[in-house]
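Researcher: Re-running this chain for the archive, since the previous output was lost when a drive failed. Same request as before.
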Amino acid sequence: MKGKDYVKRLYEEMPDGYRESIQKGLNAAHHFSGHMSFGSGTEEERISRLKIELETADAVVIGAGAGLSTAAGLTYSGERFQRYFFDFAKKYGIRDIYTGGFCPFPDEETRWAWWARHIYYNRYIDPPKLVYQKLLSLVKDKDYFAVTTNVDHQFQRAGFDKKRLFYTQGDYGLFQSVNPLLQKTYDNEDWVRKAMEAQGVVKDADGIYQVPENRRISMRIPTDLIPKCPEDGSDVTMNLRADDLFVEDEGWHRASAAYSDFLRRHEHLHVLYLELGVGANTPVIVKYPFWQMTYDNPKAVYACVNFGEAFCPREIEKQCICIDGDIADVLEKIKYA
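Model: Regenerated structure tokens:
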């Protein structure tokens, strides 16, 4: 049986953009003084400058975090959570979609009913706002690459070239076996749709599963619908990076290599590192590497668009554009600036 060591050897000669980038992030954490800048100029001036950079840069590297999907309307709490998970909220005291993934449900039938909804409403439907499409309209004619810690697949749903995407932390649309010898992932869309129907949700006129008006749905799926590995019948789990058992499959490795190659080919050119909605949970994957690569290349520009968290190190502030605002609004303003 071919396990993780075999897979590691299989891909060890390929560039590893993920770990190369993390090393740059670690370097940045030690390099910069910790003194931050929030940029200069009016919002109008910053947006105008960002538009010019988008138009003139040799390449654009997009770094996206949860804030981008939130701006698109894929919120994990509030009205959207209550609409689709009201029953789980009432019975188990769950307050939002994210924390619900860690709830100690009483049995597998309930746990997988939760995950079917969790996956479906964050992976297999389009978000309410066309934020990803607006972003694509700004970069589609550029030499671009997008790296993201998001696992909702929204870049590809919006039409971004999948060869220019790297989902570093996994994909809601994939299962992996708990058997560490099976270093593969498995598409889960068919299972998700069956598990949704088993709970009593119904399709609307647009083919989207919705809670019926009487709100009579089940929080359990049939035992025989609990997902299993198609190869050995073992249990499965989500392909989400939580520990060292996360499966980096062939597609992941090829995307990591493509990211490494893109950065290498453009490292001395006029590059725009465009960070959108990246928070403080995993800064070493996107934020810190972007800072370091901007510092290393005098031609580079770092732009951060984030609501309440737009800042940069003082050492590179002259190369930076920091815009504190809603990403959807900023992208719209860039379009008409």
